[in-house]
């Protein structure tokens, strides 16, 4: 149990008569890049919101960073980072102001914020753009900045909800280099994506269909199981089975 960053058992969320997530069970290891795939409406976002402590489950169990999602949501929020496809930084603030603002939100000291701002700008090679409004940056740079700020407080787990939507393929690959660097440092990455080539970059993949986990394995394991050449073929087979 100590080697798992996320553990769920029969995690379920109902909205009236509609079951958004239906008794999902899985574990995510520390430092693992875990892909959470599924079509729109499959239950991915609902599951992620429960794990982030933003939505109370209807039934089932789950622990995130060792904390219970029913009773210890504040402890969970302090130990996770979050980034969505919908760019979450303030476009009317400069790059540096965004870093300082979120550093304050995360409870960092002024000295920590100063040191981390310098390190972040240097790593992303954004020193010259530090005083530019975020709105002036290309989308790919905004996403890299958003991801880096999600790591500002050294969380043990980062949730990424469609982080590379609308980004060109080259920038997407560069973004995944940042993900690999974080995972190598022991950060657990929980990522949703609809790009099947990105699914190949994950250590393991879970595929949701109508609120249920229909497949869970390594990319190689899933392709072997479904006798498929690519993850796109696996996804298409599951979609056809549904219909």
Automatic annotation (TrEMBL):
PROSITE patterns: ABC_TRANSPORTER_2 (PS50893)
CDD domains: ABC_subfamily_A
GO molecular function: ATP binding; ATP hydrolysis activity
Descriptive protein name: ABC transporter ATP-binding protein
Residues of the ABC transporter domain: 6-235
Keyword line: ATP-binding, Nucleotide-binding
Database matches in Pfam families: ABC_tran (PF00005)
InterPro entries referenced in this protein's UniProt entry, alphabetically: AAA+_ATPase, ABC_transporter-like_ATP-bd, P-loop_NTPase
Domain of life: Bacteria
